[in-house]
Amino acid sequence: MALALATFAEKDNCNRTCGNLNVPFPFGLDKSCAWNSNLTLTCNHTSGELILAKNIPVYNISVEDGTMTIGNYIAYDCRNESGGRLNGSRPNPWIRLVQHEHYTVSDTRNKFTVFGCDTWALFLDATKESGSGCLSYCREDVNFTASSACSGLGCCQTSIPKNLRSLRIHMSSSTNYTAVRNFSSCGSAFVVDQETFNVSDYTLPVPDDLQLKNYLPRKNYSQVVLDWVVERHLTCEVAQSNRSSYPCGANSICSYFGDGQGYRCFCKPGYTGNPYAPPLSPNSAGCEDIDECKDPGRYPCHGNCKNTAGDYTCHCPFGRDGDGKVSCQIYSPAIIAAGNSNSLAMVTQQSKLLLL
Question: Which cysteines are cross-linked by disulfides (predicted)?
């Protein structure tokens, strides 16, 4: 075990930033700094952009929930007056993670989203055996400012299947937008994280969007969330049987990511930090105890708070009764009182015995 911890500490003595982004262990900017080669990322030091695979921009890595936020091309399909496709249209972009098996497109965070009038779009996996899609239609321009969700009127959404590593978008229009040309001649389709998506931020796509992508690269991408595992094809039981090659640090737990995907590490309840951080690392403390008493907004206490390892206690002050984490009530008047010249005992309505 000592050898394993020393190896962890050695690996973590690495550059952990790219531009403004943190690159936490088990990821790394070279193979010697990552837990395995599948978690190695590339940093463009000129632009400060973090890259997955050859050209997928990375916007965020979360070790707390086992996700990575990437950018993926938005599909655009714009037509001219005769229904011909405009230059710059890109109706069939890919997400390809087939050779990066530690990652899957999150089915819980993302949705497939389509904007347009007379616009249909679908996505298929690499085998073309799994996919989904939807149709967006409208008879006039749509203002999404007051909208809270896609309704099918100018915008539609559908869910993402589990364990998807590759998808290709296909989109078109039943009339090549000739039937709605007086107010719409474009459609767009993309996979997007529902926690950052707000339909009121969008408008129906227009041909100018094809030009803006050359000057505003982020307008060309949607934010997509990937789930990742630290090891593939291993259960927690198998991984824990070989402690010298087990990446979960102190005060962490192993969580199996179902259907044979692999496992991830998380901090135990009451702890926070990087569950993969090596305990002997000079750069990180790993999973640290949360001092709940310093954050009463999240961890309420109406009495005397005391922090404990992985938890906290809260006792109501003298003269009050109840669960200190919920509320403390003043003692009700005594129902029974008995005593002599030396002592007095009272039983309250809460059946508590008080010696006075």
Answer: 248-265
